[in-house]
């Protein structure tokens, strides 16, 4: 008399069957695609080639348009007036409000320089907070560094200090990229549900408590020791 299958055996058989089925579906799909290509006549292949070329040309044109608007590099803009012009002509803008004496702004600069080259679909700018009191007031910027994340001319989100970046000065470029991806201000190809800093080793990184205090609208450095 044969022993009855245990629940584990049954589960294994079901899984094996599932895998076989899905492999079969994939193979059938591939066979159909190959058959479709085999059956295509010269004209159809030519049309397919043309469509591909047009798509490539369009991508290239879009790239050129972005570059002509100052995308692809991380730039400083001289004044508040320039800010409005720059924001008006690009769909996605990241603007870093910085101060020369603030050490953390230099850390931010380093990462933004890399991301500007990688994500040419977005314009990356920096503006001296001390030279733009009207904008800082209007955008309620109290802590330096702050990134204003702008879509279609409207400020949608802010990255204030390094709080969202693992609360450390040693955050990676990937972590900032993930945060900008969360705001949909860049085309992010990673998994938004899996922040890069969660997989980083917690050892050896200098976790510093960030200060977010503001007194009567005065702008504070996120790395200031003032109480």
TrEMBL record:
Q: Does the keyword Cytoplasm apply?
A: yes
Q: Does the keyword Nucleotidyltransferase apply?
A: no
Task: Provide the alphabetized UniProt keywords.
Answer: Cytoplasm, Cytoskeleton, Nucleus, Phosphoprotein
Coarsely, its chief localization is: cytoplasm
- Name the GO cellular-component terms: centrosome; cytoplasm; midbody; nucleus
* Database matches in CDD domains: Phd_like_TxnDC9
Q: Where is the Thioredoxin domain?
A: 80-163
What is its quaternary makeup? Forms ternary complexes with the chaperonin TCP1 complex, spanning the cylindrical chaperonin cavity and contacting at least 2 subunits.
Q: What's the stated role of this polypeptide?
A: Significantly diminishes the chaperonin TCP1 complex ATPase activity, thus negatively impacts protein folding, including that of actin or tubulin.
The protein depicted here goes by the name: Thioredoxin domain-containing protein 9
Which species is the source of this protein?
Pitta sordida (Hooded pitta)
Gene name of the record: Txndc9
